[in-house]
Amino acid sequence: MKRISLLGSTGSVGTQTLDVVSRHPESFRVEALAAGRNAELVIEQANRFRPRLVSVATKEIADRVEAHLPAGTKLVYGDEGLIEAATLPDADIVVTAIVGSQGLKPTLAAIEAGKPIGLANKETLVSGGHLVSEAAKRKGVRLLPVDSEHSAIFQCLNGEPRSAVRRIVLTASGGSFRDRTRDELVGVTVQEALAHPNWSMGSKVTIDSATMANKGLEVIEAHWLFDVPFEQIEVIVHPESIVHSFVEFEDRSIVAQMGVPDMRVPIQYALTYPERFASPAVPSLDLTELGKLHFRKMDYDRFRMLRMAFDCGKAGGTMPAVYNAANEVAVARFLTGDIAFLDIESIVETAINGHRPIAYPTLEEIGEADDWARRTANGYGR
Ligand SMILES: NC(=O)C1=CN([C@@H]2O[C@H](COP(=O)(O)OP(=O)(O)OC[C@H]3O[C@@H](n4cnc5c(N)ncnc54)[C@H](OP(=O)(O)O)[C@@H]3O)[C@@H](O)[C@H]2O)C=CC1
Ligand SMILES: CC(=O)[C@@H](O)[C@H](O)COP(=O)(O)O
Ligand SMILES: [Mn+2]
């Protein structure tokens, strides 16, 4: 029985993680649920999975939830509550499915507590990749990728030494505006941007897909997860999201991982690794029905957020944290209708051009760079 602490239980990855759990009740038990503001859903989840601990974002939400929890479930809230969920002694694995760089501290705390991580929250590795990697190595803790591309690469690598790897290739669907020119991006609506062609996901990552920032974050995530230099990481467009990513080895063999686009597959593999369980709810991929798959070169002038991510990743230090934090604010502002779609990249560009990076930042320095980037991004155009 694997005991799970799930951070971000009410989101897209969180609810799909609970779906996986509910299909294998003999193998998994939920020990902790950490949600943000969705009181109604976390109450429902708590009554269904009866965890030892529930955490919510604020005291106000906790007051709304308290009376509705099952007997024996402890309620906590805020940053401390999240850390308590991340470090629960009874948990065997912590799934980090909250969104944004707020995932960094609880992830570090979970690692320090010796917990393997099912890592969905890519912003964590972008913000503090060196700290997370160092802590995971020091504690001998595994970072098990949940992000579909990284789960694919993890499966393709299958323990091969890094010296055998020629390049890692991440596939990008192109997002909701894949076939539009830059001129055609002027005036696009939030609703259009949220219409991802292949995946149903939270709003932040869906907008990131549309700007290609998602692939930028994933490039940096891959660098840290697989200890591969940026020069050996490539991105290509693959509209169907069937080949989830691939690895070319030095002997020119290419190993790819494929399947229907369904996050329950990588989520489950992170939970069951090194075993594979059945996925009865996931349809089998029929290549003869598909007939064709398409691949094309990435256009870095069209998708500038990806170019900026490579530049920030190579610059290192606090630069990726600034890229990420400015992007988080810009996406939030776009979602509320405060700025136009193309302003997202202008905001990120302004932040990274104005930042004086620190080479080997501490957690505190990352926090300061993150705060500075948020202030800069919030001030843009006001
Ligand atoms: N969705 C997907 O298919 C994929 C997502 N990812 C990554 O996984 C992460 C989660 O994405 P996704 O599930 O789409 O995001 P969602 O927006 O759907 O969910 C975010 C989750 O974070 C929770 N949350 C927000 N603030 C807090 C807080 N202060 N304390 C505790 N919980 C909080 C939300 O709670 P509440 O709703 O209660 O406020 C919610 O449960 C992201 O980093 C994303 O990039 C990676 C690959 C695929
Ligand atoms: C499901 C998943 O892992 C997402 O991060 C997905 O990769 C988004 O797709 P694109 O960024 O390729 O549009
Ligand atoms: Mn992904």
From TrEMBL:
> SUPFAM superfamilies this protein is in?
1-deoxy-D-xylulose-5-phosphate reductoisomerase, C-terminal domain, Glyceraldehyde-3-phosphate dehydrogenase-like, C-terminal domain, NAD(P)-binding Rossmann-fold domains
Which sites bind NADPH? 10-13, 36-38, 121, 123, 202
Start and end residues of each 1-deoxy-D-xylulose 5-phosphate reductoisomerase N-terminal domain: 4-129
Q: Which reaction does it catalyse?
A: 2-C-methyl-D-erythritol 4-phosphate + NADP(+) = 1-deoxy-D-xylulose 5-phosphate + NADPH + H(+)
Q: Where does Mn(2+) bind?
A: 147, 149, 218
Q: Which domain of life is it from?
A: Bacteria
The answer, when asked if Electron transport is one of the entry's keywords, is no
> Which Enzyme Commission number(s) are on file for it?
1.1.1.267
- Which pathway does the record list? Isoprenoid biosynthesis; isopentenyl diphosphate biosynthesis via DXP pathway; isopentenyl diphosphate from 1-deoxy-D-xylulose 5-phosphate: step 1/6
State the top-level EC class: oxidoreductase
* Needed cofactors: Mg(2+); Mn(2+)
Ligand binding (1-deoxy-D-xylulose 5-phosphate): 122, 148-149, 173, 196, 209, 214-215, 218
What's its job? Answer: Catalyzes the NADPH-dependent rearrangement and reduction of 1-deoxy-D-xylulose-5-phosphate (DXP) to 2-C-methyl-D-erythritol 4-phosphate (MEP).
Recorded protein name is 1-deoxy-D-xylulose 5-phosphate reductoisomerase
Organism for this UniProt entry:
Paenibacillus flagellatus
